[in-house]
Amino acid sequence: MNAGLHELSLVFFTVLAQTAVGFWLIFTFVMCKGTSRKSQSYLHKGLFVALLLLACGFIASVTHLGSPLRAFNSLNRVGSSMMSNEIASGAAFFALAGIYWLLAVLGKMPQGLSKVWLVVTVLVGIVFMYMMNNLYHLPTVPTWNNAITSWQFYLTVVLGGCALAVAVLNTNPHQDYQVKCSPWLYVLAVLCVAVVVIYQAFGLAHIHSSVQQAVNLVPDFAIMQVLRLCLLAVAAALIVKVRTLPLLSLAVLITLAAEMVGRVLFYGLHMTSGMAV
Questions:
Q1: What is the pTM of this model?
Q2: pLDDT (tens digit, 9 = 90+) per residue, 66-82?
Q3: Positive or negative CA dihedral for 269, 272, 274, 277?
């Protein structure tokens, strides 16, 4: 576990950004189906939570770079560098989402433009997630350069997004829509996480470099993954059974904590090919 703690800034950035994008996907689906003005007003207020998480994630990423100026410098290689592509697409998603929220809250968003803006932001968010995932598929890091990485990242999008969506959408006093699928999609994602964890546990035994075995990088892998799955199970029970904001908010926090445990383990598994560790 300690091996991945040095990348806490990236842990916060990836998990919070993935949660925000996941929420935006569900939020857009609901908004495009059509809702009343009172319902929209409540949802736009709830959208601020997702933007706040995204902002916290970007602040954490800046601490990883060491200086905000480095973030601007990293944009010099957009198109040829996955990191530059990730930062550019992430900044574009944040800008589009933030401007939409501001215009909607102020009542300045034209109805005809609203749905188009939402869909465009969704597409940019998907590109953002794709770039983030591809950034870690490094040929020199065998513990990351596999399908497990993609499953882990995209499942966090589903878990975090569904948890936050249920907390915001299902507690709307003016609710005139149905989001019955989100809780069960969350449960399905938890089951997928369990399968991925088991598959990864068996696969680590076969990954090694000239000087290091992958299984030795995270000796507490099994214990921490069991803790993670237990947290997700508790959150799933809350999401399926309760409808009160305090308990659903707790489910969101538990989900974020569980995924951060998994992400710390992910960074702890960093291992380069050849003679380097």
A1: 0.92
A2: 666 666 666 676 777 78
A3: negative
User: What CATH code is carried by the domain that includes residue 162?
Assistant: 1.20.1630
Q: Could you give the residue ranges of the DSSP H alpha helices within the chain?
A: 8-33, 37-65, 68-73, 82-105, 111-135, 147-169, 181-204, 221-241, 245-268
* Number of domains the chain is built from: 1
Cα–Cα dist 23/99, whole Å: 17
Can you tell me the distance from the alpha carbon of 32 to that of 251, in angstroms, rounded to the nearest whole number? 26
Closest CA to 179 of 189, 167, 166, 188: 166
> Could you report the per-residue pLDDT of 9-60, keeping only the tens digit for each?
999 999 999 999 999 999 998 888 877 788 888 888 889 999 999 999 999 8
* Residue 126 placed within a domain: yes
Six-digit token string for 121: 């932001």
* Residue 273: inside a domain: no
d(CA 94, CA 104): 15
